[in-house]
Amino acid sequence: MRPDTPAENVDHNAEAARLERTAGLYPEDAEHLLVQAAAHLELSGDRPSATALYDRLLSSPEPLENPQLVRALKAANLWEYGHEAEARAIIDGVRASSPRDPAAWVIVAEALESHDELEAAHETFTEGARLLLTGVSEPPYSTHPLLFGRHRVRRMLGAGHDEWDALADTLHTAPVSLDELHDPKRVWSLGSDNPAELQAEIARLQSELTTAREALSRPFPVAVLHWPAGELAELLSAYPSLSSEYPSHEEHLATIEASLRELAASGTPNLGIVTGTVPSYEAFAASEASSPTDTTLLPQYATTLAARGLAVSWPPRGDVCWCGSGRAYEGCHGDDASL
Questions:
Q1: Which of 17, 162, 265, 327 is the most exposed place for a label (fewest CB within 10 A)?
Q2: Closest CA to 111 of 141, 88, 145
Q3: Which residue has the higher pLDDT, 32 or 48?
Q4: DSSP 313
Q5: Are residues 162 and 212 in the same domain?
Q6: Cβ distance 231 to 277 under 8 Å?
Q7: 112 shares its domain with 145
């Protein structure tokens, strides 16, 4: 997930530095971690340093998993601090490469849109949708921002609805419709003296922000840390003081399931489980200049594993249980009697 928390609430420079340290410990995950670090630098206002991280990735001798996404992010960032010509050249290159990742299309299209290049933004959204959605009966979740963005730009251009706009309407689940959300006339309501109109506009903006965050926050679940039996035994043997945190493996597993159910009941979306190992946890503690016995590191370790893309979604309905028993989830920890 690319962070969107304002700088006054998070020390983005410190978070970027932490992610860079973690990338050094886990080079196999460097691409994902450094993209996150660059996003924090952008939010801190240090856009040149963010560009340096993108360049570092693009010049790496190791092949990237998604080089066009990194190029798209670099272009959007460059344009924001005055390097328009270079940004346009990169955007043209990304479009010409026809990436299979919808995020790359969305980022370059939104960069064009944010700089009032509406026709070019519309062409880019449409190119991406045509490439990725032609002949697809059920658009994957990752492609929804393509359709939503295209709908938004077409409304600003005064274009009528087409089949993809209708599809975007069916995929949109927020209480405020896409037509209302993307109405170009909304901006005029901000100058109204009518409190009811202003309140309605605030509700629309909140809905739009929620939709955008949900669409662009993949995949970064709220993750709970799971220790397999052998790893937990090794952990407690090396660090006996952690036994107060983990009285037994059975209780540990029950606590995980109960915690996730409680989070789900409270409305928390995108839940997941990450599996820890003792060497990995010790390396993480060392990177934080702390001791593995510090229990405050445990949730931080879980978050770092999730940031590395190592979380599995919960609940795993129809699949084997997350606990490693080999049984179906519904017959294991998914059974209410197990709690």
A1: 265
A2: 88
A3: 48
A4: E
A5: yes
A6: yes
A7: yes
Chain centroid to CA 166: 26
- The per-residue pLDDT for range 67-92, each reduced to its tens digit, is 999 999 999 999 999 999 999 999 99
Do β-strands 271-275 and 222-226 pair in parallel, antiparallel, or remain unpaired? Answer: parallel
Supply the range of the domain harboring residue 108.
66-216
Number of domains in the chain: 2
Nearest to 302 by CA among 228, 242, 225, 221: 225
Tokens of residue 190, six digits: 């901000």
Indicate if 195 and 231 belong to the same structural domain: no
3-state SS of 238-283 is HCHHHHHCCCCHHHHHHHHHHHHHHHHHCCCCCEEEEECCHHHHHH
Q: How far apart are alpha carbons 283 and 212 in whole angstroms? A: 35
Segment 322-336 shows an average pLDDT of 85
Domain boundary among 173, 192, 216: 216
Sign of the alpha-carbon dihedral angle for 171, 312, 263, 300? negative
DSSP-derived secondary structure for 185-242? THHHHTT---HHHHHHHHHHHHHHHHHHHHHH-TT--EEEEE--HHHHHHHHHH-GGG
Same domain, 164 and 235: no
Q: Are 156 and 203 in the same domain?
A: yes
Structural domain ending residue among the three candidates 187, 216, 245: 216
Six-digit token string for 250: 């059975």
As given in the structure block, the two tokens for residue 126 are: 């449409």
The CATH number of whichever domain residue 145 belongs to comes to 1.25.40.10
pLDDT score of 263 = 86
pLDDT tens digits along 178-232:
887 777 665 445 555 667 666 666 666 666 555 554 444 444 467 899 999 999 9
Judge contact between 224 and 256, C-beta under 8 A: yes
247 lies in the same domain as 116: no
